[in-house]
Every structure is written in structure tokens, then in C-alpha cells.
# Entry
Amino acid sequence: MSSSRPVDIVLATLICLQTVLCGGSLCHADDTANENTTKENPSQERPVQFSRDIRPILSDKCFKCHGPDEGGREADLRLDRRDDAKHVLTFKQSKPSELLQRVTSSDPDERMPPADSKLSLTRSEIELLRRWIKQGARYNKHWSLESIQAGALPKVKRADWPKNEIDRFILARIEAEQLAPSPLASREKLIRRLSFDLTGLPPTLEEIDTFLADKSSDAFAKLVDRMLAKEEFGERMAVNWLDVARYADSYGYQQDRTRYVWPWRDWVIKAFNQNMPYSDFVTWQLAGDLLPNATDEQILATTFNRLHSQKVEGGSTPEEFRVEYVADRTHTFGTAFLGLTLECCRCHDHKYDPVTQKEYYQFFAFFNNIDEAGLYSWYTSSVPTPTLRMANDATKAKMADVEDRIAAEEKKLQALTEERQPAFQKWLTARGAKPDISGRIAHLDFEDGNQGANVVVPGRIGQAVRLTGDDAIGMKVGNFRRSDPFSVALWINTPDVKERAVVFHRSKSWTDAGSRGYQLLIEEGRLSFSLVHFWPGNAIRVRTRDRIPTDKWLHFTVAYDGSSTAAGVRLFINGKPAPTRVVRDNLYKNMTGGGGDNISIGARNRDRGFARGLVDEFQVFNRQLAPIEISQLHDGHSLADLLKQSNDTLSKDQSASLLRYYLATSDAEYRKQLAALRSVREERSKTVDGITEIMVMKELDPPRQTHRLKRGAYDAPLEPVTAATPVSLPPFPSDLPGNRLGLARWLTDPGNPLAARVAVNRYWQLCFGRGLVQTPEDFGSQGQPPTHPRLLDWLSRRFIESGWDVKAILRLMVTSAAYRQTSITSPQLQKGDPDNRLLTRSPRYRLQAEMIRDNAMAASGLLVKRVGGPPVRPYEVAVSFKPLTRDKGEGLYRRSLYTFWKRTAPAPVMMSLDAAKREVCVVKRERTASPLQALVLLNDPQFVEAARVLGQRMLKKHGTDIDSAAAEMFRVLTSRQPSPAERKILRKLYDEQLQDFQKDVAKAERLLKVGDAPRDSSIAAPRLAAAAVLASVLMNFDESVMKR
Amino acid sequence: MKSPICTGFESTAGLTRRRFLDRFGMGLGGIALSDLLQSGDARAGGVDSAQTLAPKARRVIYLFQSGAPSQMDLFDHKPVLNEKHGTELPDEIRQGQRLTAMSGNQSSLPLAGSPFKFQQHGESGAWLSDLLPHTAKVADDLCFIQSMYTEAINHGPAVTFLQTGSQFPGRPSMGAWLNYGLGTDNENLPAFVVLVTKNKGGQPLISRLWGSGFLASEHQGVRFRSGKDPVLYLSNPDGIDSGTRRRMLDRLGELHQLQLKRTADRAVEERISQYELAFKMQKSIPDVIDMSDEPESVLKEYGDDVRNPGTYAANCLLARRLAERGVRFIQLYHQGWDQHGNLPAGIATQCRETDQASAALINDLKRRGLLKDTLVVWGGEFGRTNYCQGKLTKTNFGRDHHPRCFSMWMAGGGVKPGITYGQTDAYSYNIAENPVHVHDLQATILHLLGIDHERLTFKHQGRWYRLTDVHGRVVDDIVA
# Structure
């Protein structure tokens, strides 16, 4: 636990801080410091650089009121552009500039920043401002927005030290500070470091021995190649990418149900292992669906954009959360690829960086264009649309086959219309005169009194029901499948123009069920019929073109043919086909299920009912009615009249009407064909409805209009905007499409200054523990400038020129001399480079959560190395905040990256070791040290079990040679041999514990029962237990958990 | 801690300069400090000015009533609702404000008067319903706020808003902010402890509510479980007794001493103290959990539930024990207040579970002299509607979410006792007087702890963040 009050901290840190601050000039040094005058001529003032020295001050202390944000600007002064600030920067010998006057004034009314801003300038900042103004107050662009410089390699004195170009930059900085780099690390340290950095796992003893024995000059390079070629490389790289992608196996927010997204994680592993160029890696994830002839794999990559949290809580406003999802995608894009914090400009122009609120919504527009809902479904397990069906080749073949057969059956049906003419003619002569509208499975005429709270009133025919809007009238029929033809007919009368009203439906609920089922609504005065698997992306909706009249009875019929197409949904008003608009035509999964299996009239759970609306003569048919039947239902005579009419007076149209009636009701052949068609459609449902879906991106056509949102509020749209990139960044080429694919192309254009820098910086962080820019999430003016700007540019340029070759850039980094230094520091370096910004030594830091656990698993031999597959539930999920049932067997021993990630209650061991929470995009993890971590490593059954199994393995191998067993235990956990002094301690502990357990064998037995892994009963319990204790101590030892 | 300091650094619990400056942001003295250090001037002015005023409270016990208790059935006495029971919510009261998608589509919104009897209590004359007989007895120690309001309309966002200052995930919780800003007041216990009543259903809680957001994870709340291990893996595994554990730590310490010699690395020292602290916690946490030393009279006062670990009553008593031992922020959660239906029976159960222990906690703290510097906060995430959700019958009804007004109470820690602050309209629908926004409440809590809410900042992704975002004002009228 940390120290108590600020006061204590200050006193205690005083000395330490002074040490650090004395070296403060380091932060301002350049990585080609030879050109600098500091050392040679200390009296001469170092030139002040705007982007390095001044912009951070202005940004932090002044831009809030005098920056790019027009809305927040005071006194009409902006300091971020020279032309606008010139007048306060003019320096005259006699009179200081106004800016300087104001920041140094002792008059509280004059002094800037004003007291109520709670901001203040330090003396050194004022001094920098003074020097900057004196030197002419020159401006330049923020460093990260400048194009990538292809600088020359700096000259160095110690020409023998550099192993590659990286080292020239590093050494130049070190030499400029008159320091020297550290010696080479031992081979054991090197292979351990490299193995964790590139594979996330410790090296095996065989790997260590091979490397130690390899005396060739390129032994290390070969080792690097071996590591990069392993499958574990992809797993290691994926861990950090999952943080960026806010990957989780559950939806998040409050209810936090499980979701199926792991195939995307496996794709990431595969992409890294195949060394997919970073530009493709990015493009596929942002816009794989828009690539020409996109493959399933390319579409799957876009799941990246859907990994944000999603909401299901009842009563939520869907649009509020849909906007939140789009914002999350936008922010993730900004942080992950641009290193820009776009969050700020969601509500107003960015206070610090040149991005306006309008430009934010222009980015937003790229991601605002999929057919998604703001809520996922409570009552069903529908995958939120858009989705990709995860079909294998066999299933795909089956799907194609069944579609072919449907087409064939449809063709046959069509042909029958002609072929059955003779039969029709025969029927015409022999027909009865009475209409026979068969297939009616339910009829409510409301003649029998009130329906619950719904009152019966005089209606269109006899009595009708007046609906309360809150009380549904339930029926006992209506659970149609999408392959079932059906029709529903009713009289309705609305008292007013309904913005929304549920007339009837077969569903459990509205958004809480993703509207699963079918429904007739009044929407903005129009009748709207839908068949829905999940609204809006997996559904059909057909809406009348015209508004329906108020206070007037009208007859409505929907007739559906079972085709799962909008064309198969026909709406009739007063017996005539109504002019309609197809709102959605994309139903590709079942509309049954979710509850609410039968038709309900007038109201729906958490939806707006048909309040004060009238309904009469409600009829349900289990077939698609012919138009003339529908006319008959409306007027009670059309069909009857026609049937009575003599054959010779029938017009062509009348004859056609009768033909359709005949085929639908009386022609055995036609009806047989209808049944055949239905059966093959049912077969399609059986083939495809069970296919697992995964959330992906798919453009809406036509696109959704994006607006600037007032203060970011979902319900406060301002002017419309179109997709575009900010003017402060390179222009968006006019030949690129204004969609996500265009955005990806723009991003990965070699001229884009950010994409490569941001990526290279993260890879540097992966190898060196922190980036050259130590705020990898923020390359803007509030972030830190790079410690080695020219190195960053050189690496970025190299990365682009290599074709965005990830393995190559990592190889370059880890084969550098900088990487291979020892991490042990000297007093001299501690003083000259206290924070190791110069990389005068190799950094040391605690391994990340996954590595610590995987190290224990690997050392014990329990680790199950299998790449990919569904997430697993190791011991720790049973003790999370929302406990889950743990796995038995393999699932306990997979690499930590496969641990089931539940957002609202993440794996507790991972969390205590600072794993990212995966709520939002994270590009850098914290590294903390707390006693809770010690408790985990000492007492968590998975570590205790691993210790026990490791001890057992060593005893089996070394028998009674305890020293050898202990030494090997030490070695598998730390990758090196113990020193004599260490050996003594290990032996002592083993002996002490052996004695202890021999005195109390039952105690030993208890320890050996921890964990599912079997115990070797051929070894005495006290020995096994003593070895387990020894292994447990070693798992807690510094070198087991630290990268050194 | 027996480790010698031989790396030449003052051990300050690992605070680096960066961390230090980050912590106090541009306000809380960090900049002034760096300034004075650079100039060699030893005034400690920056830090003094950070403490804008002497803290009135040293710690907080937050009794979070999750699910949102109905204000007009507990605190906000509205006879008009009884008079107009069953009539429609007047449009001029609703003023077109948004409703949830649960009742928002109801065709009828009938007003529902409270079936519970209200009386005034204590010298302060605070109105309370007969659901809260014990709270009524400590009314003069409490400061009721009738005019709370929030922006969120559903549980997830609303609880997150109250606890983190933002409706959306990702920000640090109030306890984490305090832990980060003030550090700990004790050696052997976490600074921020979370206690959740066991076996309660209702709206789920989420670990982010006590999470550290973008602050370091060490600042997150430590949830005490009600089982054998109050802290994750606190107990030694089976077969490891304390003798073995001590030996293990001693040998580990010896290995680490060698490592320290070899590397001269401060991180090794940190590791040594980390293990010693863990060892201490293995004793101090069971000690605080073990209530066998509590006199019978105290147990009686909290009620029968107190003998059942994990109940609200047991957690209240545990909160007092933690407060005594210097835990900075003790966050209780009691779920089950989400009475969309069956309100009369549901709310009565909730009150039975919480009323006595909440009042006992106040008395207990007071008796021990702890109430004066312990701030106790009682309340949920929003209010409930004055109209009925679902069917209004003679004996039964429900209430939907209502963000426009709700009631809370605070006590101790520099809050004025025996007052009622703010008022709602006659319908308990809108605020009539002295509105208190969630950010105002947060600002006031920080203020009572001696912190200027505008100065407790953390720079994340290029922006300085605060618990109160860019809002919040201290409610001076309730500060003693």
C-alpha cells in the first residue's frame, strides 16, 4: 500500500526528485545530439523548439481558452497559430511582449493563467517562453503531424558497438550525454528475454542449451529466427492486440452475457503467424468487408469494430447506445491507429490538438453505417447484426445446393400456372358458386363481450374491440416459420395519427427480443409489416407508402408466401394491393423462438400499444391468400360475384384472378408443388438457421446520414456531415471511396505520418517495455514527445519500405545492441540516466499477467499448447466477482490468452496482475506492485498446483539428488543456474520442509490435493510436498516474474 | 519491513516523479513543487495550497442502496399523490421529459400515493415513513437531501455515473480517486474496501463500480468476500501452515537479498516489502473480519442479521471496524430496491434488511467518537416515478425509474446534522428548490475530505480527468 498524505510524499521524495530533476535537460535532448551545443558551449542558449518545448506548455496551460476550440475561446485570442498570436508575441527591447507581461504579472486580474483556472506556469516554463519569444517565437507543426523524415544515421564514436542502425541513434544520444552503454547481457538472460518478448513463454532447457552451445557468430540471429517462426509468436502478439481491440467474450455493460467472437481472436493469431503486412492487417480489420470479392476471412477481420461493449438493459434508449458504439469505434480507431485522442472532440473542438468537433463526426460517419441495433436481445440469443455466418465449405456447398433447389421448385411452380390451364378451364365449367376461403385457423369477431380491459364497442361488422394500448388480446395461433405461407386479415380504425403503435404481433417484446417474430405496426401513420430474426439487420419490413386515414375503418390483409423475401410479403388495403416501400429485405434466419409464440393484438411488452384503436374481424390463415379472396374478405362479395359470373363474360383480369384462386385452393398439382417448395424452403432453414454467426461490418445502402451532435448527445443532431478526415492530417485522396476502405487506404498511405509511427512505437514498447513515445495512446500535443524522434522516424520509414513487415521490424529491434545490454545498472548510469530514457541499459520490469501464469504452467509441464479455439475457464473464473463454473482437464492449462474474458468480472488473477480490463481500447498496461499479487502467486491453486507438479517432475527425474532437482527447478523457472549461495538456500528450505512434513504427513497430503493434476503416488508425500513448497517459493522469486 | 535500503533511494512506496506529478496534476501542487525544486527554494507552498482546507472527514462509509429506493415512500412526503391517487400524471408536471422505454409506452400513467404513513421525527422534524423506524431515531444526526437529480435513466449508467462521474465505463470510481489522491491511512489493510450484501438479486453490480479506470490498478477497491477468503487467496493453501509460510518467506527473502546485491534494483526492495505486507494482511484481515470481540450490546443494536456474515447488518458493523482501523473508503452495496412492481411488499423487505443496521452504524460511530470524521452516505442511483408502472390496483403497484429527483442522506464528517436540504414539487416529480446534481454530491464529498474537486486530476489520453468531469459545485449549505 502506498504512503499516506501528499505532505509525507513530498518530504520523502524531495531528495529523489532533485536527483531526477537535475537530469531534466535529458527530456529535451535530441537523439542526434551531436549538433547540440549544450556540452561544448553551455553558456550559449540552446535554441528553443516550438513543438518540443513550447507547444506542450501552451497546450497544457493556455489552449483551454486560447486554443483551437472556437467555443471555449476567450478574448478572441488563439495561441496555436502564429498569425493569430503574433500581436501578443512581439518582443521589443524596451517592452516585453504582452504574453510575457501577462504570465509574469503580479496583478491577479492581469495574471495568466487566471487563478480560477487552477492552472499555473512554473518558472522554467516562463523562462522557456521568454527565450522562445526572444528567439523570434517561431512556430512549427506538432511533431507527429510532420511527415516522416528520412534522416541520415548519426555519427558515433564507438563504431564497434552498434549491431544495426537502431544502435547508431541510441548510441549517439548516450555519447552526447557523455555516458556509455552497458555490457552485453548473459546468454541465459538474452534467451529468456527474447523468448518472453517474442513468444510470451520461457525458453525450454533444450533451447537454452542449444543456444549456449552455439558458438557461431550469428547464433543470436538464428535464435531470433527460431522464435519468430514459432506458433507461440502469434499468441504473444495477439495478447496485446486484444487489449487494443477491447476484446472480451462477453458483451459488457451490466448484464454482460456471453458472446461468440473468439474466431476473430484466432484470426489475429493466424495473421501474426503468417506475418501479414501491417497495412493489410489494419485494412482487413477496418474494412475487410469492402475489399473487392471479400472473403469470409476478410469479413471476419472486421469483427474488430464490433468488440465494444453492448447493452441489453431493459428500458434503455437504443439510439443512445448505438451512438455510443459508433463513438467507441471512432475512439478506438483514433487511439489504435492514429495515436490521437478523439474523445475530446465528441462534445466540442479539441482543446489541444487540431481536430474540430465537426471533424470528429466526419470520422464518426465512417463507422456509423452498419445496420445495427443499440441493444442486443434479452429474450433471444440473436447475434447483433450485421453478422457473418461461420459456415465451413461443406455447409456452404449445402447452402448453395438448397438455394438451387429452391429456385428449381419456384420455377416449377411458376410453370404450373401455364400447365394447369386445362385443369383450370375444366374447373371453371364445373365450379360451385360459393366462395371457399379455406385455411382459416382463427377468427375473432368480438361479438362475445369485453376482452379483459379492452372494451367492446359497435364495430365494422357487429361489435369491434377498442384497445387500451396496454392490454394485449392473446390468440392461440400464429407461430409460423419463415418457410410457412400465411395471411392475416383485419379491420382497423385508428383514432389519431400514430407515431408508433403495435396493432398485432407474434413476439415476446420489442427491443428486448430484437423484435423476433412478425408484427404489424403503425409507424408515422403508415402500416408497416415485418418478419424479424433480429431487427434491423436480419429482417424484412414492408411499409405502405401512404398514411392511413384516421377515424375510418379500413380493411388490411398481409399475405406472405414463405419465401423469406420482401417480394413475398404483400399488403392489401380495402382489398387492393397497397403501394408499399421495402424498408428491409434481409431475413436469413428463423423468426420463431424467443417466446410470445402466438399472435397478440393491441399491445406489446415495453412497446407502444394501439391505444384507443379499434379492431374487428381478425382472421388468420395458414396459407397465402389469393388477391380475389382478400377482396372478398374486404367487401364480402368480390369473389362470390366472380364465381357467379358466367364464363363467357369473364374479362382477362377476372379470369386471371380466378386462376390464382383456383390454383391456391383447388388445384391438387399446384398445391402439391406449393408443399414441395415449402419443404425445400424448410430444408434451407434447417441448413442455415443453425449456423453460428459472428458480428462483423457491412455497409448500409443507402448510407445513414451522420450529424454533428450537440455536446455529443444522441438526441441533439446539428448539421449533417459526411465522412472525411481532418484538415490537419494529409488530404483524403479524391479517388478513394468515402467509406471505411478509403479510410484504411488513407491511413496506410506511405505519406500518412501517424500509422507507421504509432505501430512502430508499440512494437518498441513490446521489446523495450515502453515506447519511444511514452504515451503510445497520445501522439498529440498533450502526449510526450519521442525520446528519440529521429529513430522513431527512421524505424517508421523502414517499416513502410519493408512492406509493413512486422516480423522484420521486431527482428531489427531485438537484434540491436541496445536490446542485448544487461539490465544491471551502475551508479554512474543511475545518476546520468536515472530513468533509462537513453537506454543506457536494458530495461527491467515485471512480466505481464499472462506471462507470469504461463511461465508457471510451462515450468510445471502442465501447459497445453494448442493454438486457438473457444475460450477456457481456468480455476480463477470460479472466484471472480461473477463466478463461473471452471473447466476440468485441458481448459485449466491453456495459455492465459484463452481465458474466458467476462467484462464485468474479469479473470481475477489476471486483473490483480494488471491485465487490461478490455472496456475500452488500451495500448499500454499499468505495472503495479501490490501485496495482493503476492497472495495470488503464493496461494492461488493454479500456482500451487503448478508448483506441486513441477516439484514432482523434478523428483521423478532426479530421484534422491535433491540438489540437482532444486537446481533444475530453479533453472526452468528463471532460465539460469542457481549460484552456490542460492543452491544453499534452496537445499535448506527443502530440508526444513521435508522434516516438517515428515512430522505431519497428513499436512503434506493436504497440500498435494490442491489442484486436479494427479499426484505420483510412488513418491512419499513429505518429499513431494517439500518439493512443492520449494517450487512455490521459486515461482515468487524475482527472476521468475521479472524481465531482466 | 526488515529490508535494508541499500540502493541509495528513499523508499517512498515506489512513487516516481512522474507518478507524483501525475497524481497531483497541474493543480494539487505538483507544478509548484517542481518549480520550487528546480529553483532550490524549499517553501512547501504548493502542497499547502493543494489542501484547500482542513479535511472534516478522514474516511467515507458509503451505503449504496442499489436499484434506486423510492423517495416518496421513504423520505419525500407527498400527500397530494394520495389525494390524486389513480389520476393521470398531469402534463404540466411531466413537461415532456423522457421516460424509460419500460413505462414510456404505457397509454396511462396513473399517480400512485404512498401507502405508508409519514411522521415527523426528532427536533429537526424530518419526515420519514413508518418503514424506517430506526432511521427515525437518528434523524437529528442526519442531513437529508431531497433534491438529488441525475442524468441517467437506467441502472447501469446511473450507478456508474454516481460512482465514477461518468455514465459510461472507463473512469475511476470515487474510492479509487480518493485512494489515489490521499493514499492510505493504515498499514495492513487496503485503503478502499467494498462490501456487497450476499444473496441479493436485482440489478447486477459490476466490478468496475469500484474499479480504478485509467488510474493504476492498486487504487481499485478490494472487495471483501463473505466466505473464508475475504480477499482473493488470502488464506494459505491447504497443507501450508503459518510456520511453513514464514519459512517460505524467509528463504524467499534470502534469495531476494542476494538478488538485491546483484542488481542494486529498487524493484527488488519493493518485492521484499510486498511479501511482508501480504504476510501482515493474512493476519490483519481475518482480525478485522472476526467479530467475536464485539459485545453483545453492539450486536443487538445492529439486529439479528449481524450474526450472519455477508448480510447488510454484518457489513455495517464490519464497515465500522474497518473505519476504526483507518480504511479510507468503505463502500457497501445493498441490491434489491428496483421496485417496478410489487412495491409495497418489496420496499418493506428492503427496509427491514437495512433500517436498523444503518441507524446502529450511526449510533455506534457516534459513541466511539468516529462520526465526526467519518462521512456516512446513504442513497441509490436515482428516484422512482410518482406514477404507477404496470397495473395500479387497490393494494399493489410499481414505480419506474425517475432521474429528475431523489432523496439521499449523509451524516457525520462535517455535514450539518438534523437538516433537510432541497425540495421537490408537490408531486415529487421535479425539483422545486436547491437542486443537487450527482457531480455536486461528488464535489461536496471531496470537499469534506479536504480536496478541491477541480484539482484532483489525472492526465489520461491527453486530457486531465476529474471525478466531477468539468462540472460540480460544493453544496456549501450542508457543510457544517
User: Anything to note?
Assistant: Chain A touches chain B through 133 residues (CB under 8 Å).
